[in-house]
Write a structure and sequence with these properties.
single chain, about 200 residues, Rossmann fold, 7 helices, binds S-adenosylmethionine
Length: about 200
Amino acid sequence: MLLDARVQAIVDELTQRIKGDGERLRAGADRYSDDMVQAAGPDAAGFLNLLIRAKDARLIVEVGTSVGYTALYMGDAARATGGRVIGTEVIEKKHAQAVEYLRRAGLDGIVEVHRGDARDVILALDAGSIDIAFLDAQKSDYCEQFDLLLPRMKVGGCIVGDNITYPERIKEMMQRYQAHVRAVLNVRSHYLSVGSGLELSVRIA
Ligand SMILES: C[S@@+](CC[C@H](N)C(=O)[O-])C[C@H]1O[C@@H](n2cnc3c(N)ncnc32)[C@H](O)[C@@H]1O
């Protein structure tokens, strides 16, 4: 995907960190360490970039920003649409890194990362205001966060949930999430084989 040069430079830096994380994991490091980048990867991030452009999205919300990998891709697209991204990260160290990476990428005026529980950020948003939301924090919180987001989505707005098929150990929890969103009357939802598996849910009324 063609990204702005400053954004690409930071994505490249993070890609090197992710390779290092992979080596540390293979050597037995804790996958949940605050030092891990934990990114959705280029396929999911590229898809989100294009979705923002295709929908001419103005308000994008990310639930779980970590150090900002997908936020970089989303910010790149939001700059093109005249939109903004609200990220959320509960871990102070990761939040600080995300803010710094986004500043170095020239996206500090486009992506604002809130430190704390995404729930508080979602609750403060107006009904019918969000174009795209990306769910990528605690998987056990997806259903609750989806329910909080839905009334705040525009009609036609998209909620994208990550990790539907990978990692394998959370498969049942993700199946429960899919069943949950597919049972909602004013939502149409479909699985996309992109990255670690995405569930794309559209508010239709
Ligand atoms: C998988 S990582 C996010 C990766 C990021 N979306 C990317 O692809 O670059 C999940 C992050 O969500 C954060 N998190 C977990 N629960 C949260 C919550 N309730 N509110 C905000 N962030 C949360 C974790 O600290 C972690 O850094």
